[in-house]
Amino acid sequence: MWRSGTVAVAAVAMVLAGTSAVQAGGGGRFTPGAAGAGDPYFPDSGNGGYDVKDYDLSFAYDPATGAITATARIRAEATQDLSSFDLDFLGPLVVDGVEVDGPARWRREGAQELIVTPRKGIVKGRTFTTTVAYHGVPQRIDDPALGTSGWIATSDGVMALNQPFGAATYYPVNDTPKDKATYSVTVTAPSDLTVLANGEKTREKTSRGRTTVTWRMRQPMASELAMLTIGKYNVTRGRTEAGVPSVTAVDTALDTGQGAGFFATTNTVTDWMQRTWGRYPFGSTGGIVDNVGVGYALETQGRSVYDIGTPGRLPSTGTIAHELAHQWFGDSVTPALWKDIWLNEGWATYNDWLYAEATGGRTAQAAFDAAYARAATNPSWQTVMGDPGRDGIYDWSSYTRGAMTLHVLRTTIGDAAFYRLGRAWVSRHEGGVVSTADFRALAEKVSGKDLDALFTTWVYTPGKPAL
Ligand SMILES: [Zn+2]
């Protein structure tokens, strides 16, 4: 319906924005969806009243200006009788028009709410498609506590990294891990640039020096884990030994021939994780090495991103193990609320320890001992790991205390129960969202032990636990 960039779109958009007489719903039965998703750390992120099933995002990218002209088609199911609903969408992007299965009204409110009012109320259970046409130069987020996220310009293009709330910098979104959806991402860019995103490439077509590429993520994905990059890459494609399709990429400016090693390590670790925790949860594995300047690696779904600033360098095997472990712990199985992020970072960090142990490096016990040696007076022990606060989600506690907690759990319930628990956790909750309470309940069920003291001390009590 919408063809972005045409005169017709702009004209229709003005008419839609100016429409005000249409009343949505009838008789008070239809009510607005909530403007947040109930996470106290990020009260404006996410929305209520609907459940997104699929995002179909199309971008035309102009490297000269950094501008995008884009269309988002969002298929969702109403979870209440809806008179209007919100999407998270940040300026300075300009909305050109919004439709909900036909004409709709819209307005923007506050920093990130795009409020959409369909012509008629949407009955609970009905599936509807919202189309948003927009354009502009997306701007990244630099958060004093949480670092850089969103649409990040690089020397040769862009890298979009969303965790925890960057998605709304380049597409309208229900930005909560609670609302996973499948994704199609289509980018049209000059043919000398490579486009990579989550999932598998399903289409590529070149015409007059511009290439259009579509990537499809077929498994449910949280918006914080969506990724898109446009740049100059050397790409390696193949399969792991166990047969998982694999795509790795190294920025050409960083590549001194390390691509084959990166590909091999990624595949070896992917297969080790499969043997340890069960089948790889997505359609393909891989990784992207780029000079992003954010100072972190991120477990973007199916294909993690590693920020490397020096040519010739690769992420450490430990970092690769950490990010690949996240594909099970964090991506497939995702905490619904950010306070439970230790379930991501603790498991990922512990898998780094376990992989080292399994490959002749330091044992997990030695890693635990080294971490536990941190003085009790160190303030990092005072964070309540199970509720670290908005600014504390990336603190030492979520990572190292999280891994230590899992090690204590392992030594308490024994290796057999511990590995059974990990496998049950990722299979039972595959593609879903979880809480610490879910994890404790499963740990107690699998082990047959009361773990109240362990969870109370390690997860919910500040201070250095006694052993
Ligand atoms: Zn991590």
Report on the architecture of this protein.
Strand 19 and strand 20 form a beta hairpin. This protein has 3 domains: 1-224, Sandwich (Immunoglobulin-like); 232-330, Neutral Protease Domain 2 (Neutral Protease, domain 2); 334-460, Orthogonal Bundle (Neutral Protease, domain 2). It is built from 9 helices and 22 strands. Helix 5 (364-372) crosses helix 6, helix 6 packs antiparallel against helix 9 (452-460) and helix 7 (415-428) packs across helix 8. The chain has 467 residues and is of the alpha+beta class. The protein starts with 6 loop residues before the first helix and ends in a 7-residue tail after the last helix. The protein has helices at 7-18, 259-277, 317-328, 342-358, 364-372, 396-413, 415-428, 436-447, 452-460; strands at residues 50-62, 67-78, 85-88, 94-100, 104-109, 113-118, 127-136, 141-143, 147-154, 157-161, 181-190, 194-197, 200-207, 210-221, 227-231, 233-239, 245-251, 285-290, 297-298, 304-307, 334-335, 433-434. The strands form 5 sheets. Strands 4-7-2-1-11-14-13 form a 7-stranded mixed β-sheet. The protein has a 5-stranded antiparallel β-sheet with strand order 8-9-10-15-12, with no helix packed on it. The structure holds zinc ion (ZN). Zinc ion (ZN) binds at residues 299, 322, 326, 345, 348. Residues 1-24 form the signal peptide.
